[in-house]
Every structure is written in C-alpha cells, then in structure tokens.
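<discrete_fold_record>
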Amino acid sequence: MIRKVLHIHLKEPILIRDKKGVGNVLQSKGYIPGTTLRGALAFAYLSMNGKSANDENFREFFLANKIRYGHAYPAKTGKNYRSLPIPATARSCKYNPGFIVNPFIQKDDPHGVMDILFPWVFYLLNEKNNIDFPHQYRKCLPDRWNLNIHCEAPLEPFEGFYLINGTNNYERIEIKKRLVQRTAINEWTQTAWANKLYSIEFIERGQEFISEMLIDDSLLKDFEQFINDKSEIFIGGKKNIASGRVNIELKDPTPFPNREELEQRFRNMDKAFTDFCQKYGTNSGNKFTFFTITLQSDTIIQDKWFRYKNFIDIDDLKSAVKNEDPSILDNFKLFHAWINTDTVAGWNLA
C-alpha cells in the first residue's frame, strides 16, 4: 500500500450532515468522513463518459477494499499536512479556552491547554497510598506557564483540531461555518409552507481539507489518472442550492517519523512521566514503562464473538502489528482509557 494525501479545496459551501441536529437546524460536521469522500468519488467516476459500475476500475477503486479513504480534516491553505483531532484528555479554562498565542498574555487571551493524562495516571497508580489527584490540575492556573494572570476557573474538555507549528507551538484550527435560512415546501401544493422555517449549517467555502489515503500499488497509476481527469467533484448534501463543489488534488504526504525518531519519542514520554511522579514525591513512574495510543479516526473494535468493544486491549494491538514480533507486547496491559462512542448508521463501511 502506498500512502498519499488528497487535498480538497472548497469552491462552494458544503453540508456534511451531522445526526446531532437540534430543533429545526441541520448541523454539519467539522470534517469530511472517509465514507462521504468515497461516495463522492464513486459518483464522480460514474458521471464520466463511458464509465459504469461494471468497470473493473470502479470495483477496484471503491468495492475491493484496495484503497482506504481516510477522514479529511481541516488544514491550513497551502500546507501539505492535515490537522489532527485534539486528544480526549485535553482540558482548558472554562472562560478563556485555547492555546496560548502570545507570551505577553492579557486578561481576555486564552489561558492555555493542558493534558490531564499524566495527573490521572499518577493518581490511579497511587490511589491506594492515599495520594490525591494533584490540585494544580483541578483548576485553571495560568501561573503554571509563568503567566502573570490569576484564574481559578474550572477546567473543561477542549475539542476540535490542532496543528503543531514549529517546536511545541500548538494552534487550533477554527472551522468557519454559516447558517442559511430556508422555507419548507408543501409537498401537495409545491409552494412555500407558511410558518415552516429551518436552518442549514454549511462549512464555508475557501477552506481546505486533507484526507490521508492508502492505495494498493497496482492501482496507483490508474487512480492518479482518475483524479487528474476529475479534479472537480461535488461533496455532501443540498447540492441543488449552489453548494458542494470542490477541487481535489492527489499529492505525496509528509514522511512519517523514522524508527529512531519514534524510539526517542517513546523514551521522552516515559522519562517525562517519571519526572512528573518524582515532582510529586513518588517513584511510581520508575516501576513501569508507559506508551499511549491516540485514535485519529473512528475505530470499530470487535472481540472474537464479533461483539463491539469500547476499549483496545493488547490482543487487538498484537493483531495490528506488522513486520515485527508481536510477542513484545506480552509484557504490557491496558491501564486506563478515555473513550467516546458513537453510533454510525448505514451500509457503507469503507
């Protein structure tokens, strides 16, 4: 499989319907799901002259599981890397949330984002020793970053997408949306239905999204030709009201970190947790080696009886290991997890 990235530039607003709509508002997701992208490309393929669902390429591209269509997350225009979902353990000030953008912080500027992973693991390791959760991580305390601001507001989950600019400079990607008011149509008279109004939330045009894809080696040349021939497609719902038109371009991705860089990342994290434990007076971090797994997209996990699971255990990791001996994981076990679950309806499981 060859890794590629698909750049999606919005020429018109798009609607990616979210099931969490409230009242008479059709809400849109903040990203483009891989299934939506796959369906849009399949429709674009069929709209080309002489193409049909019986073509070998159609089956190979969209039905044979030889191409994996990743979620398209927001990106900065002109950049070749996408943002990533903010981890579930991220917390920020209730009243001034967000990453620090200015070292000379003012009163109403964001108070920073913190990760409660270390404090929680530290607490769980030492709970039986009557060591409490570190109080510095219960409230917003900007002075932990040497900021001259007093705040003790509650911390709340911090969600969305983020990029890393330079060394440890984090930036949240804001997704621009707009609300469009519409009148319902009476199906009997085909006229405007009095007192029946609703709103549609669109992702605003001009923004860029990037999907990471895995393409079978034998299909790469043909798939690249297809993308070049069909560089403009339509995505999402409500395409009959001047929305959904996007430009697409397939590019080479930013390289993954090499093995040495990954090994150093593991060592750095393990040392950081050991130092954290010692800071609060225990050596519990020296007893174990820790690593974390952060899911970058929705994941379906099943046990051997095909029942859905809401956690990832060592057997799941061992089945996913390739080109390495999975027995190295025998000495590990799941310690804790922060999980959000969702129900996805439909037949499309690409």
Remarks:
- The longest helix spans residues 259-279.
- The radius of gyration is 24 Å.
- The chain is about 20% helix and 25% strand.
- The mean pLDDT is 82.
